[in-house]
## 1
Amino acid sequence: MLDVSGPAAVPRKNGELVFETPWESRAFGIAVALSERGAFDWEEFRKELISEIKETEKGEFARTGKWSYYDIWTASLEKLLIAKGIITREEMKEGVTQVEASWEHDEATHHHNES
Amino acid sequence: MTSESSPHLEKAHSESSSSPPPFSGTYPILESDIAARVQALESILLEKGLLSSDAIDRVVEAYEKDIGPMLGARVVARAWSDPKFRARLLENAVVACKEFGIGGNQGEHLIALENTQKVHNVIVCTLCSCYPWTVLGLPPNWYKNPQYRSRIVIEPRKTLKEDFGYDVPEEKEIRVWDSSSELRYFVIPERPSGTEKFSEAELASIVTREAMIGVSEVKKP
């Protein structure tokens, strides 16, 4: 069996990234895994995505030409999960604060260890 | 639309993580770094027992390693080699693809579109980014961009020529298929001449993702 590493190979083999950043891959994985587990129907997520896309096309994209697909994806996911009561805004706020604090701590520790 | 047609739109994407999305009224989204938001989201879901990191890892790995256009290429190669398989594929793509161990996704119909001397097919999702994941993996950035999604429907022949360098012969009818949650399409491109002696594996190696989306043809090798 020939190793198909030509044009139709998995994108990474072509040097193209499926996900450009780690957070994109997590955002993707979370949405798919949650849907597989029945937290929501894919169609519900898609509806959210469609409305988010429409808003962005009229808003930021029309103004700046910037198109950040996974930003839109993540916003859709958050909106859906909050609407379904699976997470709350407060939890997200608190969670982000914790994550950013832990990043700062990691940086401080890293610099300390280097000096 | 007056936005510039720019291949750099895709590059801008990864650098945008530091700029928060526009805030509007009932928008629940926090104005903070998106990477932090995704990490926070994962933590919260883990704590609530709704997901495991492993589950997320498995999904990511599947689409980074196992699921991609090489699957569709093998399906196309067999359709080219075996008329009975081609017939089965056109009749019911989900069932036919199972012969390659390609699973279907719940609630999705996969439809194979046959390019002929008279008809050229091309796929799009005008509303979002629906795409035949099971045979092509995840869509390229340009497929998800507003430009492609609107232009290919309004002026397909011009778009294919200007954006993809593909000059569809005048005598061919171009059919644009709009995907949805339930209906995912992929294209069986025409087999180029000069491949009569190719094995299936060799045929698979010349089938490109772009040809299975319909924005190009498979060139004579």
## 2
Amino acid sequence: MRKRIALVMLWLLALAVPQTGRVLAQEKKEAPPPPPPLALKVGDEAPDFTLPDDNNGKVTLSSFKGKKNVALAFYIFAFTGG
Amino acid sequence: MQNFQKNLQRLEAADTQVLGISMDSPFSNKAWKEKINVTFPLLSDWGGDVTRKYGLYDDKRKIGRRVNLLIDKDGKIANIQIDRDAVDPSNTVEFCERKKLKG
């Protein structure tokens, strides 16, 4: 009797193992949803803005027009990487 | 931010002004800038109006996205680096230098 129970248990385990593997594989496949693409495209006019800088001044994007390129780096918070 | 600082000379040599933008207050930007020795301006988009205007506000996660935009002298967007790609600005730097060579 005990032997039979053990056999049944083994059999159940054997069934369960590949199932578990499949579930895990599925979870792995599901990467986080890709972030939405940007509405802005290369060639678009950059929306103008005026924002306070860190030195009691203000900076207007269009003031660089015709003079310099501007590399605008948007940070999630100032203390994050990059 | 430090990665842009490292490339600042190359960017300036290629006629490019670097501007950092975050949704932090001007006060915390100043403190942070001094702490990490960044010399380019950090602009404060307190409230997130500009971040939204550029379509960079992630409504789901309630934060802005990490993006580098290169805006050329005509005021047009010339190059885009987004999310993880934006952490290393080499692509933006190289783009400016190529553009400068072309004239």
